[in-house]
């Protein structure tokens, strides 16, 4: 059985889907640090440019990495990568909010990817545990929903019941995918399933050129988009390194089970931006004031097609509250300060030209 106290006894390789991703980069680094062999499932194993940062890690660390071609939408494409693995980390899933076809760009890859990976786990006798990257979006769609949660605080027991294809399509895709995962898991009795449900992920990337919707949020704090002010749009945030650690602990802690809400801070857009003011306020247009809800409600839909007045009404000036105690208690997670995470990501974005042409 997997043992969190001595991972050196785990001789079998570990599979990671979406290995070039934001969270996966730090997870792969952790696995390699522990001397494990990582089966990295990627779209194109021949793309040395995209794999450069992972290869550099493998050269410096005691573990090994082997690449396997796989595609979320192709059934059976994970067979070779999963063969012989006891532990599977399924991190591959898009995080984008601006899409032309929500079903094709969000729902289909999230659902098909989950089905293809977990059905392959059913067909791979060596697999003992799957750790699935879900999201707090599968717990809550809008901040107004928090008023309906037990004690008006989010926890692992809460599910997103309000999102749909036409409202919060990204959150809807994460909810459908996680529900499908538990359905497939409950239909078998050989392997275990653990889900990691992070809030907005921030912090430095292993690959500084990685893509994530998180970067767009942080970029707005310094590119002038919020020069008139930042709204009190509540959400949770967590450092990417802490999310990766949560995945690792969920994989190698024998007692880990169920869902884990991974969120360090209950915050909002203004507070997030304000964490950068001390260090970057003199050189970048960090918003200095709170933007009232009414101008966002009135003009937001004209400036951003994805920002409806309904979304503004259900989220702005509504606090985001979550209980992260299960992961602290069962996985031993310790969270980094908000300012540390924000400054590390913001500086990385500066160093790699993310603000040029803003």
From TrEMBL:
Entry similarity comment: Belongs to the NAD(P)-dependent epimerase/dehydratase family. Dihydroflavonol-4-reductase subfamily.
Entry superkingdom: Bacteria
Keywords linked to the UniProt accession: Oxidoreductase
Domain NAD-dependent epimerase/dehydratase: 14-250
Name of the protein in question: Dihydroflavonol-4-reductase
Pfam family, one: Epimerase
Gene Ontology MF annotations: oxidoreductase activity, acting on the CH-OH group of donors, NAD or NADP as acceptor
Species for this entry: Reinekea marinisedimentorum
